[in-house]
Amino acid sequence: MKKIDIKTEIFEIINKFGPINFVQLVRKLKFSPSENKNVSKALIELEGELKIFKNWDGEYYTPILHDEFDGVLKINSTGKFGFVTELNENELIPAEEIRDCFVAKYFFNSAMHDDLVHVKVFFEDKTKEKTFGVITNIIERKTEELIGFLVSKNSFVDFKPLDNKFNNAKYRISDVKVNAKINDLVIAKISKIQGDFIYVIIEEIITNKTDPKVFFKAFLEKVKVPKEFSSVMDSELKEIPKSIENENFENRIDLRNELIVTIDGDDTKDFDDAVNVKKLENGNYLLGVHIADVSYYVTENSEIDKEALKRGTSIYLADRVIPMLPFELSNGICSLNPHEDRFAISALMEIDRNGNNVKTEIFPSIIQSKYRLTYKQVNKFLEEKTLLNENVELTNMINLSYELSKILHEYKTRQGYIDFEIEEPKIYLNEDGTVKDIVVGERGVSEVLIEDFMVRANEQVAEFLTSKKLPVMYRVHDAPDEEKLSNLENVLNVLDIPFKKPQGILDPIKFAQIATEIKKYKYDEFIKLLFLRTMQKAKYTSINIGHFGLASEFYCHFTSPIRRYPDLMIHRILRELVFNKNMDKLSHFNDIIEGIANQNTSMEQSSVDIERNSNDLFYAEYFKNKIGQKFHAQIISVTKFGMFIEFPNKTDALVHKSTLLDGEYEANETMTVLASSNRKFKIGQFIDVIVTGVDLVEGKVDAVLEEFYNDFLNNDKNKKNFRSVKSEQIRKN
Q1: Which domain holds residue 114?
Q2: How much is the CA Rg of the chain, to the nearest whole Å?
Q3: What would the mean pLDDT of 477-498 be, rounded to a whole number?
């Protein structure tokens, strides 16, 4: 019988009788056993043509095409499945209408994580209740290089990606450009993809498996954290003075005789803000906020400026800082180090006893910080009421600062500001960079004091520029939207806290009144977290809508030009259009400001993600030595696959619903309760758990309820320490 006739007959039988297994199919065909080989070949071809599929039971059936679209493939961290989400260029498709579909590993068809693909969506069966996707075309490859280990396989050197999302393919090393050896963590450039094989060139050695920081270093490479500054700016850096002894400051107001101080963390190296406070004869306060004059040294479109714009912000990791500006500036001439003359831009604000701003002056200055104080030092002083640094004048000034801070705080509270600052983990490291301890970070009155002063300065600079009709890169923050308020309502009601989302326009004062009412029932770290979740993300823009979270009508970032590009931009506008009165540049700033604002919003979010994800790696490392230990934890969110819990030190873990061994658990529609037929867990509830494993690559922690721990181990030995086994075996293999 001709092959084409076999295929046609096979298809017709499967279409009529499917799902049907191989034995049943052969019986229907009534072929001789000698034809079985041809039947198998025909089945493979029909599968390749997407005319038939095989289910989990090994049965063949004819699929029903449901849909097809272009989208981006995101592969699960296990590498076993993924989802294709419809491409939404220019955000023309409403979020609720964006299509997506599940794709099993064997339907990737050589597509890789993040590739732009074309997917066909089929119904699983004739009930048309469930669907699955098959990738039929790769439109654009997105991955050019991979990070992984060189491993020994069958006496050959092989490449194994660190990220499981890329482990569904077979790799072949086509070239090695460095002296790499087995167990080295390397960067591999993809040279070609041919059939089921991906050919790579080993380009660079990152470190070796024996390095205790191996996974952290891999992460830094993966997210492309900037390394060293380019040599193209060397000539500019050579021109940067180490002091201002020979500089011209005739156009600056000399404040070097004023008692100006910096107040920062113990480990701070770059000081970009300093303060002083006086009491005036009329009873008002004079607040001075003095900010490093970075724009004097970093001119627009210089090589240093281009790199600063590219970075957008400094990135603060547990073991290092990735600075926006080179050391010569950030820790050198721009840093307001004690007892050294420095150029600054100063904002002097007269404030009455009710916190109202009476008058503001903004000007270039020369200052000298008299003391380098720390938050811990000032907090201790304000608590014990002793003599600070054995200096009466300094003691009086700090007391006056605290007095003004309370006035400013009360003023902001009347405007609708609510302090939703939540406790966060503080990572302490050993000398070799490994985790020593993780505790809840402290935020004392001096931290709040500096925040109050900086917020007032940022508000006044934004209002000043607005009043002059000059361009401003505002820091804006919109009111919570309907969906977030509905989520808040759902969660609070689950917690038995009566709350009905407000109708109409929500302003900060109304929102503060809501928070005040809820405080009567309960107000802890979890409630503050819920309120924070209702907030929109702040962003930079040239269009002012106010800052809802701070209850500010005008707000910009002015106080941190060493570590944030938007602040440098504000300084540059002040310098050119206000101090130098160079109005020829007005149209220039108007033209560029929105583009730079959008870029910095994006870079800020990127840096936040990097900081958060890097912290997760340290958290996982910490809990690696806590596997088997019991913790009292709080449920902070519910998902379709389980619940996330928070430990006392404010780190978190996942309790997967498969580890709840007393029933089948499902999340409710509002994702506030995980329930079975006889039990439920709700958001905010405290439970006792035992840590079961960590993933040192992904930075994840697993836990199970204490009551299920022994059964969990006994019922499935393979689950024991799953995450830790996975990451530890990477070291050993």
Answers
A1: 63-140
A2: 31
A3: 89
